[in-house]
Each structure stands twice: as structure tokens, then as C-alpha cells.
Design goal:
alpha+beta; 30 helices; 5-stranded mixed beta sheet; 4-stranded antiparallel beta sheet; Transcription Regulator spoIIAA; disordered N terminus; Jelly Rolls; 753 residues; 3 domains
Length: 753
């Protein structure tokens, strides 16, 4: 690892960075992309100021414009220097701005009788407080590394949030152009000639923006279209011989404003004393909404940027970067901002992914603040409003029209209801209801998923106990339907647990039918290997199944039960270790084997008497003469129960079982074991290990005291040299065993499909 002393100093690193900026390809790309994105940011800042400082606050528009432009420039610069993606562009965005506009309007209404200066400083303080709170939230989340935990937001909630933002922006367009708040009386007056000429040109300009930006995807299209719209506006005034004063009197231009008004006016110590904190406190819900909406906007923008640029971003770093920018903006009496997706993608398309790009983008904001308010009186409301309407219509088109063809009906209705509630009750209630609807829909859909991944009976699915006589196998095939097995999956909750209870009840109903009355249900095997957890409703369901077992005289066998699930079931009386109607087994195979043993016990079909190894070998693959030559190569071993056969055996021998039983186990990731098979007299162990291949099993343990014969690799090599016919017979036998094993596994898979 490189030591701290070996690392280049900060000054050296800064010098290298500055030197790279002097390269023509770097500064040319940064200059073009930075100026374009900076101009777009300023245009939007002016539009946002017109949205926030409209109606009763229109008199303070120069101050509002200075606030939004200052916030744009500061956010651009801070994020350019601190983001993990060089060329990241961050500015105030439309969604949080709509909340800020609603909050400012509510404060202005509450302070309608107060001095205009008091209203202004209170509104500015509320906006700055929203930036400070948002910045603190993002910074804390970033410092605590909570990015991965909050990254995912339900898609329908995002859609409803975006659609609601689009609708509020559309209403904001009418407020900018008409100077009146959106209400039923305004809708009645929109068709009046005097009002018509205020908003209709803005609609035309917004449609022009929509058409131009969709037909041409170049970076210059939006600024050029806005420039053409502005020129068209003034050209129309010239054609109909209307002076600027007349246009301003008709409400078509911004203003009038005091001469020489300073744009950026941060709060002073004296102004702080005038703030009406009670009015700000009444907007606590709006402050929380701004924080949440900004966080949501950052998550959406970050995910989209990652997708487009093909690079994973550190969300924790991005939250710290944007959080710092919001804090500094709030300290300067500015508003918050976050990653600007279109501008960042524009920088990426122009191959200008340098920090210099973001710094150059600050220059247009500085230029506007330096010019003062003289140019404001010449800005057409229709052009500024058209940008707001363009943003609103774009969101509504995407989430009300296009989403109808892309989303399931339930998700689309969630988007629609969220939009209506956002307009009716506000962002927080609307988004909260959207979340609730999404959770309810998820639970409903999840409850429709078959919680039982596999369902089979003991007649078709067997344990891996291989030492069965033909009589035992025939009895199990005849009586196996008395065993009913279910392999569960997923999380068991109230939506899926009742389905499991109905499965058991349906099987009991089948047992009572005349066609199947000869095979009553005696064992219900429920496997938990793929269960991730269960809630109290699921515990209650198992309590009901256990009561049903006592009433209907069947035994509940639970396998692969995790300790947490077992503890929850025991607390809720879904388990009863002292009852003969409840049995716990380590895995499904041993659970099935226990049920099979219970079925075989009354028939008194005893296991076949143990045979000598010589007779077993002669029955399987050797002649009598070959057995005589084969046995000297084997080493007899008496092994007690519970002994691991391959714990330290290197090289691994091949074992022949003369008597006893051996379990072949697989250790799972969570530490539990799964029995792959139980081998008994006459069977072979360790074929894969003997040929130095990786076996499927992880442990081979004697279940009972066993008498084994081991063929070591050294003895096998000697056999190859002296008795090759024995080697050939052994290899043929091993191949047959492997083929039989594959056939048996295939039958099990077919049963469980």
C-alpha cells in the first residue's frame, strides 16, 4: 500500500488538474458545455422566480430572481467540485420549486395585512430554512452511508409524484401569465379577451418547445427556441403597433420594478428580527415535503445518470455533495437544488466530463447578478411561463399518457390517484397514500403466488433411503398417498398463510371422498428450507393446522425449520414438542423417511438379513472366482455410529458396506445439513472421492455401527497391474451405479415439477 508520504501533495495534485485544463480539447469542450448548461440554468432560475414570486409577491420578483440565480450558481459550483462524477450539473429543480412556490404563497396569504418587507423576509427565511433542512438531511444520510438503504422507491409512487409535479407546474403557468391563483373563478375568466391574450401566447410557445425538443435532440434546441419565441413576441408587438409600456400595462411583461433594484439580497441581522416565525411554523408540512421531494429527485436523477453514462455512482458521496451545496445556499438565503439530469446528460453527450465544465456553468449566473434588475422589465411573461408549462406538460404526457400503455392498470391507477391527492391534499398525503396503495397491491400480488413451491405425495416422492426390499417398496407405492408433502417458499404472512391451511383442508376433503377413502391422510410434511421468515398470522395458521391434526388424527412433520421460525411457532403454539401429532426433522429427506418408517412398521416387513460381503459382491458384479481374488485387496474396518468416514482420509478409499447404515450429507450455507441418501448393506461409498473428483456431499457419517471394507488407491493400483479383469468389472459396476443415481434424481425432479 502506498504510504502517505509517497502520495502526491495537494498542491501537486491541484497543479496537475490545472495543467490538464489547459489542454485545448478539455477547455473547448468545457467552455461550450458549461456556457450552454449555465444559460439553461439561468433561464430556468428566472422561470422559477416568476413562479414563486407571483401574485401578491410579484413586487419582490427582482429579489426572488436574485435568490434563484444565486442558488443556481452556488449549487453548480459546489457540486462541480465535490461530486464523484466530473461534469455533474446540479441546479434547483421543478419538483421542489413547486412546493416552495406553494409555501411562499401560503405565507403571503397569512401575512396579507403585514408590511411588504416583513412578508418578503419571512418568505426568504422559509426558503432558506428549507434549503438548510434539506442539506442537513442529505449530509447526514451521506455521512451515515445510508445510500443503499434508501435507493429504491416504488415506481408507481415515482410516477404519481412526477404527474403531480407536472400538474402543479401547469397551474403555475397560469399564475405566472395571469397574475392570479388557480381557482374556479380564474377558469371562468380565461376566455375573456383581456385574459386570453395573457396566457394563450404562452401555450403556443410551450407547444413550440415540445415540438422542437422532440424533433431535434441537440443541446442548442431549447435556448434557440426560447430566443425565437421571444423575438416573435416583440415582433408581434411591432406589427400591431403596441408599445412596451402598453404591453406592460396589459400584463404581458414583467414589472414595473424599482430602478436599480439589487437582485441578490441575503438576509441581514436586522432583517432576521422581522421574520414571522409563526407563519413559517404553519408551513412545517411544506418544509418536510421539500426535504422528501428533493431526496426523491436526487434518487431518481442519480439512477438515471448511472444508466446513461454506464457508471455506478457513490450515492453517499452524491448526497454529501448536494447536501453541502444546499447548506451553503441556505446560509446565503438561497433555495435548495439537486442533480439536473438533462444538463448532466448533455455534458456527457458533449464529452465534457470535467470539473471545469461545472465551474464555467457558474459564469452566466454571475453575469445576471452583475447586470442588476434593469433587464427584468423586458422579459415576456408568456415566454417565462412557457418553460414552466413545457416542463409540466412533458411530465403529464409521460406519466398520464405514455404510462397508460406501459404500466399495469393497478399501477396506473396508483399514479392517477396520487396525482389527484397531491392536487387536493398536498404532496405528503398524496405520496403517503401512493406508498400505502403500492404496499397493498404488493401484498395482494404476493398472496397470489403459490406459497407451496412443490406439492407431492409419498406415492410419487420418496426418501433417499435405498435399503428397501421389494415388499417394502410395493407397500410404500400403495400406501404412500397417506403422506402429503409441501415445500414452502418465500415469506409466510397473512396473505399466504391461509392458502397453506386451505391446501391441508382440501387434502382432508379428498380423503373423505369415496374414491380415495382407502388412503386417509396420516402425515403432512411441511418443508421450510426456502422460507425466509413468517409473521404472527402464519404462526396462527400453524396453530390451526396443529389443532386440525389432533381432530383428524394425522401427524404434522416440520422439516428444515430455522431456529427463529421454530421459536416463533413455539411461542404461538404452532409447535408442540410433547405431542405425538407434531414431529420435527432436520431435512425433508429425513422427514419423508420417518413417515415411511411409520407406514412400514405395522406391516412387520423386516429388513433383509445381513449377507456377507462375498455374497453381495457375487450378486452385484463379480463371479465366484473373481470374489476370491477381489477380497484380498480390501481392508475390513469396524466403524462405530457417528463416525465421519472422509474427515482425514487422504487419499480417499472406496468403501463397500457389509452391514450397517451410512448417511451421505450436504452442509448448507446456513450450517444446516441435508441428507442426500442413506446407504446400507451391499452399497458403495466414495466413488467421486476415489477418482479425485469433487463430490456433491460434504460429509459421510455412519448412522449405525457399520462393518466396512476399504479399497485404498494403492491396492487399486496393484489390482490394475495384476488383475485387470477385476478393475474392469468394478468400473462397470460404478458406471451402472452412477447411471441409476441420475435416473433416480430425474424421477424426483419430474415428481416435483
Amino acid at each position: 500500500m502506498q504510504s502517505f508520504a509517497d502520495r502526491p501533495s495537494f498542491a501537486a495534485a491541484l497543479g496537475q488538474r490545472l495543467q490538464s485544463w489547459t489542454q485545448p480539447e478539455v477547455w473547448i469542450a468545457s467552455l461550450s458545455a458549461g456556457l450552454v448548461t449555465g444559460i439553461i440554468g439561468v433561464i430556468r432560475a428566472i422561470s422559477y422566480a416568476s413562479l414563486i414570486f407571483s401574485g401578491p409577491l410579484a413586487l419582490h420578483l427582482p429579489t426572488g430572481l436574485g435568490m434563484t440565480v444565486f442558488s443556481t450558481g452556488l449549487t453548480l459550483g459546489v457540486v462541480a467540485l465535490t461530486s464523484g462524477l466530473p461534469g455533474m450539473i446540479a441546479t434547483p429543480l421543478a419538483a421542489p420549486t413547486t412546493i416552495v412556490a406553494l409555501m411562499a404563497a401560503a405565507i403571503a396569504t397569512e401575512l396579507a395585512g403585514a408590511d411588504a418587507e416583513v412578508t418578503l423576509v419571512t418568505v426568504l427565511a422559509a426558503i432558506a430554512l428549507s434549503a438548510l433542512l434539506t442539506g442537513s438531511l442529505l449530509l447526514v444520510l451521506g455521512l451515515l452511508r445510508q445510500g443503499d438503504r434508501i435507493r429504491f422507491v416504488p415506481y408507481p409512487v415515482v410516477g404519481g409524484f412526477m404527474a403531480g409535479t407536472g400538474w402543479l407546474l401547469t397551474k403555475g403557468f397560469l399564475q405566472i401569465t395571469t397574475g392570479r391563483s388557480f381557482n374556479p373563478s380564474l377558469l371562468l375568466d380565461l376566455a375573456q379577451p383581456e385574459m386570453l391574450w395573457r396566457w394563450l401566447p404562452g401555450v403556443g410557445f410551450a407547444i413550440a418547445l415540445l415540438i422542437a425538443t422532440r424533433r431535434w435532440q441537440q443541446f442548442w434546441v431549447m435556448p434557440a427556441t426560447l430566443l425565437v419565441c421571444t423575438a416573435s413576441f416583440f415582433g408581434a408587438l411591432q406589427l400591431v403597433d403596441i408599445s412596451l409600456d402598453q404591453a406592460r400595462a396589459a400584463g404581458w411583461l414583467l414589472g414595473p420594478f424599482p430602478d436599480g433594484a439589487q437582485l441578490w439580497q441575503p438576509l441581514t441581522v436586522g432583517a432576521i428580527a422581522q421574520i414571522q416565525w409563526s407563519a413559517i411554523a404553519h408551513q412545517a408540512d411544506s418544509l418536510v415535503t421539500v426535504m422528501f421531494v428533493t431526496l426523491l429527485s436526487l434518487l431518481l436523477s442519480n439512477s438515471s445518470i448511472e444508466l446513461i453514462v454506464g457508471r455506478d455512482l457513490n450515492l453517499n458521496r452524491e448526497m454529501k455533495s448536494v447536501g453541502l451545496a444546499n447548506l451553503l445556499s441556505g446560509l446565503g438565503s438561497g433555495m435548495g437544488g439537486t442533480q439536473a439530469l438533462p444538463s448532466t446528460l448533455l455534458v456527457n453527450d458533449l464529452a465534457a466530463n470535467y470539473r471545469l465544465t461545472g465551474l464555467i456553468a457558474v459564469l452566466p449566473s454571475i453575469a445576471v447578478l452583475a447586470l442588476g434588475s434593469a433587464f427584468l422589465a423586458y422579459l415576456p411573461k408568456a415566454v417565462l411561463g412557457s418553460l414552466i408549462l413545457y416542463l409540466g406538460l412533458s411530465l403529464l404526457w409521460q406519466w398520464l399518457y405514455q404510462a397508460y400503455f406501459k404500466l399495469p392498470l393497478s399501477d396506473y391507477l396508483t399514479v392517477l390517484l396520487t396525482l389527484v391527492l397531491i392536487d387536493w391534499l398536498g404532496f405528503l398525503p398524496g405520496i403517503a397514500v401512493g406508498f400505502v396503495m403500492t404496499v397493498v397491491l404488493f401484498m395482494y400480488r404476493y398472496s397470489q403466488v403459490d406459497v407451496a413451491q412443490q406439492v407431492f405425495s409419498g406415492a410419487t416422492g420418496h426418501s433417499n433411503t435405498l435399503s428397501r426390499t421389494p415388499e417394502q417398496a410395493a407397500l410404500l407405492a400403495q400406501q404412500g398417498q397417506q403422506i402429503y408433502a409441501l415445500e414452502l417458499q418465500g415469506f409466510l404472512f397473512f396473505g399466504t398463510a391461509n392458502y397453506l391451511l386451505n391446501k391441508v383442508r382440501d387434502r382432508l376433503t379428498q380423503s373423505s371422498d369415496s374414491a380415495t377413502a382407502t388412503v386417509p391422510l396420516r402425515y403432512v410434511v411441511i418443508d421450510f428450507r426456502q422460507v425466509t421468515g413468517l409473521d404472527s398470522s402464519a404462526v396462527l395458521t400453524f396453530n390451526k393446522i396443529l389443532k386440525l391434526a389432533r381432530q383428524e388424527h394425522f401427524t404434522l412433520v416440520l422439516t428444515n425449520l430455522l431456529p427463529d421460525c421454530a421459536a416463533a411457532l413455539e411461542r404461538g403454539k404452532g409447535l408442540d414438542f410433547e405431542s405425538d401429532r407434531c414431529q420435527i426433522c432436520p431435512d425433508l429427506d429425513r422427514g419423508l423417511a420417518w413417515c415411511e418408517h411409520q407406514l412400514l412398521a405395522p406391516a412387520n416387513l423386516s429388513d433383509p438379513p445381513p449377507a456377507s460381503l462375498s455374497s453381495l459382491l457375487e450378486q452385484q458384479f463379480l463371479t465366484s472366482a473373481q470374489v476370491t481374488r477381489f477380497l484380498p485387496y480390501l481392508e475390513p474396518q469396524a466403524v462405530p455410529a457417528g463416525q465421519s468416514l472422509y474427515a482425514d482420509a487422504q487419499p480417499a478409499p472406496l468403501y463397500f458396506i457389509e452391514s450397517g447404515q451410512v448417511d451421505v450429507l450436504l452442509t448448507l450455507e446456513d450450517g444446516r445439513t441435508k441428507r442426500l441418501q442413506t446407504c446400507a448393506s451391499g452399497q458403495l461409498l466414495g466413488e467421486m472421492r476415489f477418482y479425485k473428483k469433487v463430490p456433491l456431499s460434504t460429509a459421510v457419517i455412519t448412522k449405525t455401527p457399520c462393518h466396512l471394507f476399504a479399497l485404498t488407491p494403492a491396492a487399486y493400483q496393484h489390482m490394475q497391474a495384476t488383475d485387470p479383469d477385476l478393475v474392469e468389472a468394478l468400473q462397470r459396476h460404478i458406471v451402472e451405479l452412477l447411471c441409476d443415481s441420475l435416473i433416480r434424481r430425474g424421477e424426483q425432479l419430474r415428481v416435483m415439477q
